[in-house]
Amino acid sequence: MATPEEAPELVDKVVHINRCAKVVKGGRRFSFSSTVVSGDLQGRVGVGMGKAKEVPEAIRKGTEKAHKNMVSIPLRDDTIPHAVIGVSGGGKVILRPAGPGTGVIAGGGVRAVLEAVGVKNILSKSLGSNNHRAMINATMDGLRQLRSKEQIAALRS
After folding, report:
1. Is 153 part of any domain?
2. pLDDT at residue 3, rounded to an integer
3. What's the total number of domains in the chain?
4. Contact of 129 with 135, CB cutoff 8 Å
5. CATH number assigned to the domain comprising residue 58
6. Under 8 Å CB-to-CB from 3, ≥6 apart: which residues?
7. What are 26's strand-pairing partners?
8. Does residue 89 share a domain with residue 61?
9. Facing residues of 92 across strands?
10. Whole domain around residue 88: which residue ranges?
11. Whole-number Å distance between alpha carbons of 135 and 115
């Protein structure tokens, strides 16, 4: 959970806002869901979904959930330590480390997650679904699989 000292450092990005309509006797009732990515640009990132009758409230709820769901990701300089494949539902994302000057080669929700983590050079390819939430969850799955050189050495010894 984010402490008050950490809050200003976090970068929040609204990835997607979805409007949902419920048909009732008097017409249509609209509600909104938002997908928000939060990160500290230093290897911590979280994803949150919020639903409400109004957009600002949905974004606020998503941001709070993203701050609660923060996970630490091991980075090597400004890229990832090794290649991974993340899968979630119908979404599949391939993440590969890249050399300096490459930039973030990713689109949509994948880019938002990688920028929030603080990755500067990476190659990615999204396969399967192009649903925002599936892509974000697949990216998070891939990032959770990452291990640093020290972690692997500790597991082997």
Report:
1. no
2. 53
3. 2
4. yes
5. 3.30.160.20
6. none
7. none
8. no
9. 87, 127
10. 73-148
11. 15
CA distance linking residue 110 with residue 140, whole number of Å: 9
Question: Could you count the other beta carbons within 10 Å of the beta carbon of residue 63?
Answer: 21
**pTM exceeds cut of 0.90:** no
Q: Are 95 and 124 in contact (CB under 8 A)?
A: yes
pLDDT truncated to tens, each residue of the chain (157 aa)?
545 554 458 999 999 999 999 999 999 999 999 999 999 999 999 999 999 999 999 999 999 999 999 999 999 989 999 999 999 999 999 999 999 999 999 988 999 999 999 999 999 999 999 899 999 999 999 999 999 889 889 999 8
Strands (E), the chain: 11-24, 27-39, 44-52, 71-72, 84-88, 91-97, 104-105, 122-128
Beta strands in 25-155 (DSSP E): 27-39, 44-52, 71-72, 84-88, 91-97, 104-105, 122-128
Q: What angle do CA 131, 50, 30 make, to 5 degrees?
A: 85
Given a contact cutoff of 8 angstroms between Cβ atoms, the answer to whether 18 and 25 are in contact is no
| Residue 124 dihedral angles phi and psi, to the nearest 5° | -140, 155
